[in-house]
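Technical note accompanying the year-one report. For the benefit of new consortium partners, we illustrate the data format agreed upon in the data management plan: each record pairs a sequence with a structure-token string. No post-processing was applied to the example shown here.
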Amino acid sequence: MNLPHDTLIARRNDPLPGQDMKYKMFSRVSLKTSLPKHRLRRGDVATIVERHPGRPAQEPGYTLQVFNAAGETVDVVTVRESQIEY
């Protein structure tokens, strides 16, 4: 396949130009807010498994995998960027 030299090719979870993501894939983050529906509390630790750049004027988001102390998956949730922190 021959593409023009200036063609942008992005992987599924790569942010597009101008859509910088604050957190990197597979980094550990903690919840800034509780998610009662999922029985998750502020401060619970999770791993980023997918990035969602969002549409223009929409906050980026992330899919997180949350583990218990034994390393078992507790839940997989999608949150806004403002709901997590390092």
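Partners are asked to follow this layout when depositing records. The chain is about 0% helix and 35% strand.
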